[in-house]
Amino acid sequence: MFTLLSHSGPGRTLAAAALLAAGLAGAIMPAQAEVLDARTTPASTRAPVISVDPATLPDFALFRECEACPEMVVMPGGSFEMGSPSTEKGRNVDEGPQRQVSVSRFAMSRFETTWAEWEACVAAGRCTSAGGDAGWGKGRRPVIDVDWNDARAYAGYVSGQTQGAYRLPSEAEWEYAARGGTSTRWSFGEAEGQLGNHAWFSGNSSSRTQPVGGRTANPWGLFDVHGNVWEWVEDCWAGSYLGAPTNGKAVAAPDCESRAARGGSWFNIPQGLHSANRYWYAPTDRGIMTGFRLSRTLSDLVLRPGTSEIERLATRAPGTVFRDGFTSGSGEGPEMVVLPSGNFMMGSPLDETGGFEDEGPQRSVRIGYEFAVGRYEVTWSQYSACVSAGACPAAEDDGFGQGSRPVTNVSWEDAQAYVTWLNQKTGLTGRSDRYRLLTEAEWEYAARAGSKARWSYGDDESRLGNFAWFGSGSGWRTQPVGGKTANGFGLHDLHGNAWEWVEDCYEPGYRGQPSDGSAFRKSSCSSRVYRGGAWNNSLQYLRSAVRNWGSPGFRNYDLGLRLARTLP
Known about the structure:
Blueprint: E1 36-37, E2 61-63, E3 72-75, E4 78-82, E5 99-103, E6 106-109, H1 115-123, H2 148-162, E7 165-167, H3 171-179, H4 195-198, E8 230-236, E9 259-262, E10 278-281, E11 290-292, E12 295-297, E13 301-303, H5 309-314, E14 321-324, E15 336-339, E16 342-346, E17 363-367, E18 371-374, H6 380-388, H7 412-425, E19 435-437, H8 440-448, E20 499-505, E21 528-531, E22 547-550, E23 559-561, E24 563-566
Parallel strand pairs: 8-11, 13-14, 20-23
Antiparallel strand pairs: 1-2, 2-3, 3-6, 4-5, 6-12, 7-12, 8-9, 9-10, 14-15, 15-18, 16-17, 18-24, 19-24, 20-21, 21-22
């Protein structure tokens, strides 16, 4: 057992309500607790709620970040042989070629996500109702009849509750955790006769799911990695591991028709439950054999000055979260998330409720490259460092507060000054892989995160408050970044909180504009675009397609910025 020491603008007039002098009570953190080792802790003993960064916990520590949060286990970083050898009994051809994969330290759910956990998300309005429990019961049984998008929505909900980066595991992370340091067919060895002690499957499940934690855990303290339900993972399905990442990241593709699932279910025979076994479904498929468990990023990658180009290239995997270290001192740049390349329809269709004429004509845009986007809007704390260095003009907070709230009252020119300073601080000045503002196409691609609906999560107006600070729900002021559910790319506050400057010159409509993700430029640019809506707007102005504009020197109390970073 371990012991832990313990907006409005000149382009389009938007109505703004009167400001309210409202304060927010600080969160009361729970007391520090003894940290349990998942490998020796019974399933009936719940993980403690912690008040420290989980990245500081020892390997195999058991924790929760809130009372209703899933129980997580710290997985050690390491390398393993992924897939099955050609001699393994019952192997399938898609389990090869076997190869060495390195996995960074992360956390994995101790159990499959349960009905009780899922229904808390539904009650909060952040998840849709699952198809049904098939009459088997809910509570501690794994949730079923959820598709890949549903699973990601739940991850976003937990992230919003905790400020942690919860997500689906990559396929490599899943197999690494499921094996628990073993290289045998199952995590307990080769003896098929022992499978019933470790898994619910066709031989003992009574043809239904069973409450999680009812079988013996694997060597790293994870339950039901064999059987009970198939578990969605992040990866786009590929029929082999040829060309797949060897750094533990998920396989990504711009047009992904199928997603991978792992672990087998209550319905499968023993062959379907071995550690290397794989399956696939369409992202919208739901079924009585399919559920999921979550993973959590523990420590963001920090690229220090002198980082080799090989290490920099490793950050290109979509979903990677990283920061650039400053060339002097201990400072670091903002958290950045790597986005995949892809195609999307930019703008709004003619029949979209609340659409404006300048959001068309809708057209296909190809983002043919991976790039990184700020996980959050640039905050006062980040911008103030530039002001203190004499590189950015001071801004006013209008009494809203500073710290982790998005900086406002900055012009497009101020945003460019911040970009220039940050590139200097991180040693990226003059490099192709440097910080910049997003192009308008990149911004909408990032905001939509694969969605064609009015907002990144869909068209249901009643759910917008789960994803955005706006109207009376904002307290009529900006709020600290990251307080709402992230979108499908793990980005926060794309809808609301503060409008965000982008690189482009404004043009009323998309005719003749680039379709390759680049910025629209012209020799005389009197207006620049900003996107996303703000705290003082109605829901119409928070749609993914909405646009606004102002002169490059325009400042306002609802106008800030978010960064992009070109990758090597």
